[in-house]
Design a protein that fits this description.
The chain is α+β, with helices and mostly antiparallel strands. The protein folds into 2 domains: about 140 residues, N-terminal domain of MutM-like DNA repair proteins (Alpha-Beta Barrel); about 130 residues, Helicase, Ruva Protein, domain 3. It is built from 6 helices and 13 strands. Helix 3 crosses helix 6 and helix 5 crosses helix 6. The two termini are about 30 Å apart.
Amino acid sequence: MPELPEVETVRRGLQPVMEGATILSAEIRRADLRFPFPEGFAARLAGRTVASLGRRAKYLLADLDDGAVVIMHLGMSGSFRIAREGPAGHVVGDFHHERSRDAAHDHVVLTLSSGATVTYNDPRRFGFMLMSPREALAEHPFFARLGVEPTGNDLSAAHLAKAFRGKAAPLKAALLDQSIVAGLGNIYVCEALHRAGLSPQRAAGTLVTKGGDATVRLERLVPVIREVIAEAIAAGGSSLRDHAQPSGELGYFQHSFHVYDREGEACRRCGEQHRVRRIVQSGRSTFYCAACQR
């Protein structure tokens, strides 16, 4: 599933053609994706102007001029394709395995006043598009319990200390808890923990003092998380499995991976004497170096 940097890359790719543009027509080619489309979805989109295109965690948010917000999620295999001339166009975002261009999986087609056509393609149909009034968005089931964004100042050692205090859960699982930090995913948690020298298996609560304050190691983790996310966004995301940018170019942060998907390879901190290991935590692969991550 695309993680925050990939979704942000897609947002930045779509923004120039969608933001400020009027949706001249909307074609919905099936009744549902992961969820049914909102009733009258095409009619509710047609004639509306996209006031802004934002992101919250791994969700894309298109604010319309009537106060409604279109909530979009890429799921496992969803992608957007932009075309200015001709039917092909380029896929927005970067993915390790090429995103589908098969028209049989083109489920939503938006014709915009900017001169572009934006097509949503999703072979596995785990993505979705829903609508909510802007004033009710914070209470929407998808957003009501989301934690802080990992890109802003709200992510702090004090915030994590409060969330981690007394937790016996593994550190990796705690960081993947979307009610604590919204948008962090498997790839970037593995990378951040390696850079911070922290074991994904240690109890999250061990990074908090008895008085409830952040330890030095937790203080160090916060800027590392921001650093990893910022670098991944600047690199256009990681081209893994199904992710691709709106420009059609591949993201290249995967070439900077220290541990993710590098099982058996030399640790980039320790050298040849220690190898990256892979374990399974909560059904997900975790990559780490047992020598330098404690």
